[in-house]
Amino acid sequence: MKPINPPSGINRRLMLSSLALLPALSGLSRPIPAAAQTSTEGGPLPSWNDGAAKRAILTFVRATTDPSNPGFVRPEDRIAAFDQDGTLWVEHPMYTQVVYCLERVPAVVEKQPELRDVEPFKTVLSGDREAMARLPMADLERILAATLTGMSVEEFTTEVQRWLAAARDPRWKRPYTELAYQPMLEVLRHLRDNGYRTYIVTGGGQDFVRVYAQQVYGIPPEQVVGTAGGTKFGYDTDGKPFLTKEPKLLLNNNDAGKPEGIHLMIGRRPNAAFGNSVGDREMLEWVGAGDGVRLKMLVLHDDATREYAYGPAQGLPDSKVGTFSPGLYDEAGKDGWTVISMKNDWKRIFAFE
Amino acid sequence: MKPINPPSGINRRLMLSSLALLPALSGLSRPIPAAAQTSTEGGPLPSWNDGAAKRAILTFVRATTDPSNPGFVRPEDRIAAFDQDGTLWVEHPMYTQVVYCLERVPAVVEKQPELRDVEPFKTVLSGDREAMARLPMADLERILAATLTGMSVEEFTTEVQRWLAAARDPRWKRPYTELAYQPMLEVLRHLRDNGYRTYIVTGGGQDFVRVYAQQVYGIPPEQVVGTAGGTKFGYDTDGKPFLTKEPKLLLNNNDAGKPEGIHLMIGRRPNAAFGNSVGDREMLEWVGAGDGVRLKMLVLHDDATREYAYGPAQGLPDSKVGTFSPGLYDEAGKDGWTVISMKNDWKRIFAFE
């Protein structure tokens, strides 16, 4: 294990905004009764209610795949981009990756016992969530560096796989990988069935999401664009080469970083983009500025019963995680982006319901 | 146009090593008689002579695509990586992208007349190749910054397309895009016909290669991994978003940068890799260190008559562009990499022969 250096800004906002929510965690141990609605409708989006959102998706796919339609897109050019946290799976009360980082701290300290009495590790080990929420930025960055870097890419993958197999969301008591939104899984499949390559474009860590993206979303590693740190090539004592994850930020894939990351990783403009927060604004603008038929959609979390309700758009409670601002809502209305109401547009939220 | 800042190291080696060769250009205006050999053999690699190299490719493809073979690779996991300069097309006497940068200087000066009497633009405009070869590093970086950054990604693409349509290689008097090696185009196709996704992994500029990779190699933009600079998201006066190419190096995709770039862009280890120089060593090592059947190949430029001859491996003339060192040759022999002799393994070099 290498000495821990402060990573230059790896997902600073993600970490900070999540930790600010930590005190709210304590009340979250009661399961919600499953809505248990199953669809009897045919068609490719069975978990969607009829409405503007479902129609926007079906219309887009028909227009871009019908050779006689002026909006036709050649199969090799069909690309759709999806934010992950809050768009494809649950992001409240805290991003799953941040939970991972905090829960990895005991294992890190076990390997480096000298950290036990050093901040911020001491505070995280104490379990005092209010104290954790008050940790200064430099300390939060040390947690990210210690849990996301300093190991080989294979070791990191193995650690995340192990954690995902054991960890349970406190509300639904299920693996985090089961908290993907069933209606969105149907959109991914419908687009792929119509020749689209589906990409994740996430503010979360690229290597973290890659571990489960194939299994959960059917999306291979090369189609995950995320916040990415550098790696360093080296050799082990047997001369076998390996890559070490370094505390060096290459791409902060949030806000303007999303179209920039899309250019780096895909090199062309997607035809469709899905998001749910102000961090997706520039991606939707970039996708919308292209020629031809474009699909721009935002998931609004307005279902406190079946999932969570937060905005502060539309008078929903404010949130530092996955903020959907009134300004974003206005821009959506003005520019023809479709807002998906989880409450009204989705028959069910999860596959297990 | 933004003021030109020195880019932090964008392809410094590429630029320097190419310019060092400039004096050699003057003698290169005589066309070589076409070899005009056409194959009568069947099979997927008609431009290859029978031999160890051709057999290595065919054996690899059979082993990894036959479900009853222990080396079988699932179709979704089949990935092959190709260096470009010197592996897929001609790199002598100078990398094509460096020719582009030098030939763009007059257009840059036309837009910014104040540069006319400023170094290094003054020297490049003079056409004095010996003086150009003596330009200091900081000046060379200014040429790269001025010709590869400071414009939108669409403007850059348009400029490269225009240049490629008009520019001619001085030896063959043909567009650079016709100087792809026919035997390697057949390898790309044979791999794709067998379910492999083919990637370019080049020290050249990612955005430069993306302009023609689909047309020349059948490789889409998202499968080009290259030396990459950052972009910056912004809005034009009408509020339309665009991305500007910035003089900021994100990925130096040479040497150890190749496996690092592969991890960033692909996120998994290719099964096959093709290169031709010391800059490909770490990529081949990385690919070779994976499990199962692996194909590692190096193109040796040993055909002074039909193309160029350089090493200095095997007593061939030394070269700063595309160096194939004796040490690399030894490593290939020791680790089971196959060296492709252009002279002996290839029936023809170009499609136009």
From TrEMBL, chains A, B:
<keyword id="KW-0732">Signal</keyword>
<feature type="signal peptide">
    <location>
        <begin position="1"/>
        <end position="34"/>
    </location>
</feature>
<dbReference type="InterPro" id="IPR006311">
    <property type="entry name" value="TAT_signal"/>
</dbReference>
<dbReference type="InterPro" id="IPR023214">
    <property type="entry name" value="HAD_sf"/>
</dbReference>
<dbReference type="InterPro" id="IPR036412">
    <property type="entry name" value="HAD-like_sf"/>
</dbReference>
<protein>
    <submittedName>
        <fullName>Haloacid dehalogenase-like hydrolase</fullName>
    </submittedName>
</protein>
<dbReference type="Pfam" id="PF12710">
    <property type="entry name" value="HAD"/>
</dbReference>
